[in-house]
Amino acid sequence: MQINNNPHSFHIPVMGLAFTIDSPIKIAKYGISSVISIVDDIIIEKMNEYYSKKFEIPYKSISKKVEDYRAKRITSYLNTVDTIVKQSFENLKKSFDEKSSEFEKYIDMLPDFSDLKQNFIKAVQNNTLKEDLNKWIQHNLKPGNIDVNIMTKLDKPNYNNKELLPQEYNDAHAALRGFANSKLESSIVLSAGMNPRLYSYFENFDDFYPTENNILKKKIILKVSDYRSALIQGKFLAKKGLWVSEYRIESGLNCGGHAFATEGYLLGPILEEFKNNKISLINDVHTLLVEALKNKEKYIPDSPLSLNITVQGGVGTSKEHEFLLENYNLNSIGWGTPFLLVPEATTVDSTTLNALKNATEKDLYLSNISPLGVPFNSLRGNTNEIIKNKRISNNSAGSSCPKKFLASNTDYSEKAICTASKKYQSIKLKELNDEVLNSTENKQKRAQITEKACLCEGLANAALIEYNIEQKGISEGVAICPGPNMAYFSKELSLKDMISHIYGKTDVISVNNRPNMFIKELEMYINYFSKKVDEFNHSFSIKQQKYLVNFEQNLKDGIKYYQELFSNTKSHFEANKKTLLEELNNLKNKLLNIKATVA
Q1: What is the pTM of this model?
Q2: Are 376 and 366 in contact (CB under 8 A)?
Q3: What percentage of the chain reaches a pLDDT higher than 90?
Q4: 385 and 533 in a common domain
Q5: Is 525 found in the same domain as 467?
Q6: Same domain, yes or no, for 145 and 47?
Q7: Which string of DSSP letters, residue by residue, matches 554-597?
Q8: What is the pLDDT of residues 271-314, one digit of tens each?
Q9: Rg of the Cα trace of the chain?
Q10: Which residues are within 8 A (CB) of 152 and not within 5 positions of it... i.e. 6 or more apart?
Q11: Domain interval for residue 438
Q12: Domain ends where: 479, 506, 525?
């Protein structure tokens, strides 16, 4: 198992806009790292006001009339979170000699294999003086990281009245500046692919360059779905003197939020490739980094900086958690979806929480509701969907689009508009009325236009509802984006219960038929491949044919990899090897049948 500098061997990834927006305030004091989305400066401003009042921290509102208000709002909230976490953590350390204290909770939730936990037990045994124990606590305990996330493609240009603002005022650029100017010493997670202009903007901030102690005050984490993407992006940044401190591998389909499917590359083989190539990755990128820092006349580390490899997407049992850490030498495992049922860690309104508890496999699906045109994990019957469908039935489809963070379509105007907006959908529906179509075709096209949902509001509203914060404008309800893993967790959980589950002390899964995470992802990819075959079936272009051939071959290679993995890794798969191999063979036959239909 890899040495992990964090107290825990798991982290909580970013979820939606609101679900983890205050997670560090709730759990960082226990040594648990989590990620805040910094896409939406509007909800960030509201949360800053809410928590400043709650913790009696001086607060000054930042109006949209203030220059660079977006970045300044983000900086201010992150500083507030940092202040609260530091104070809460100091209070926790001071409580170590109290029964049922926060300190006791911190130690109790650590995994038994944790060096920190074992060293604390030794410190207690070897020190009778309270002063000595206090010194040990001060030197050894640490809070979880307050990390942030930017979807790199959410980088639309902005205007001052009708005047186009310079590139650094684009959404993602301003969000990055907001983090860079904050007091945080943590990481920024970049997701949704490469944005060269945004990556280049990192060069403007000294905190992303190493100090003479080989320390990075602010670090870069890349969320990636395959090794090739990681290598390309890591080298691109290294040529600018920027080191990637972590590659956060995420399943292309077995995850929450937007699903960026690979061409059939499965999680197991991807992790194997990272494991086998980590040293060469470090050395290759370090060489480029040294050259860039030399040209910039900045400090050059005498050896490569530290690099973590982590994974997330569909992990659901302690055995899977342990296997991933040990077999692939990983530093941390991301647990997202199950934590939506843990109010001590995430922020979900009660109506949505109840819907999550009752969700089955059929209720969780990959939808086309995202205005970005990317498949999006959804929960049937969420309040955002109910409100949207009611509008459609009243011939008033589309959102008023107050935030415009997902506005990207320029078919009808120079300024981008959102495909979930009333403005866009009204235009498209009017065009549809002018087309000569039969009723079935008309109905299908109408559904395709109106299925897009207002995610800017939907993914942010849970916090406003939960904390009774005023909502302006027309209600959009709550959209939530759990991964398929939610089907196997069916009750509200305490933080201690969830962590005990992760470390194998308890089992909170109530169903008996939960599939292995690798099997589940493979099944999802085969179903995805089948849909692509149907989609292309009537007009195979050379490009489409190449895509399907590569996709199918990658799935076959993945199946072969899992056959060997399940057969040869006795310590983890011996007990249920027969079942896993049977399920694998059934999926292999399913794939072959799809091939037969397109041959």
Answers
A1: 0.96
A2: yes
A3: 89
A4: no
A5: no
A6: yes
A7: HHHHHHHHHHHHHHH-HHHHSTTHHHHHHHHHHHHHHHHHHHHH
A8: 999 999 999 999 999 999 999 999 999 999 999 999 999 999 99
A9: 25
A10: 172, 190, 191, 192, 193, 194, 195, 198
A11: 350-479
A12: 479
